[in-house]
Amino acid sequence: MQMENQKDKKARIMAIVGLLLGVVGLSLGFAAFSNTLTIKSSAEVVVDDSVFNVDFSSSSSSVVDDDITPTLNPTGVTGFTASNAVIDNDNGDAVIKNLHAVFTAPGQEVTYSFFTKNAGELKAYLKSITFSNVSGESSTKICTAKSGTTQSLVNTACTGITLTVTVGSEAFTGTTLRSAFANATAHDLNKDASETVEVRIAYETGSAQADGGFDVSFGDVTLLYSSAV
Prior knowledge:
The protein has 229 residues and is mainly β. Helix content is 6%, strand content 39%. The chain is built from two helices and 19 strands.
């Protein structure tokens, strides 16, 4: 109980890092958890991962770092591709990266499915999901015309490019606090528990098209877990 109280104020962070689409391709990454507690009296306590540790995993039963193969819809479309995602739980930071899709027309989407896994001893409480602005920008999504493409047409088409993060059965497209979850406790993780996470990147059906290729950048999406409610 004393050790748990020491960790009550420790928060662990997971982030989806939005990178770049080519012709509407995307790279995403998840970054998680700080494991160091610094005490101002010149002492440092390094938190053991066994105490509080939420990782990303390709398996729900244990922490497995296998690559994540995306699901493409519709299938069999020429030129419509997506890269396998990579999980990296080393050095105390849980990261999922290399999520990248290349769209050629509206109606195409890519979904990456994986898990959050509580590999620690303490229950993990999901406090919030935050969609941040693109670095240096004032929006969570930025579309930039490639050479020869008209930016005004890109701006219109950009509204049809969406990013959705689904945790369990609840989908999120914008910042949501625990108090606004459909069920505040639904996404909490007991010891050894896991929950499905899906990242859907889509060029929605019926969306406008530009007269050439363009890049799309998304800001970070952060899942904040804490050892305290």
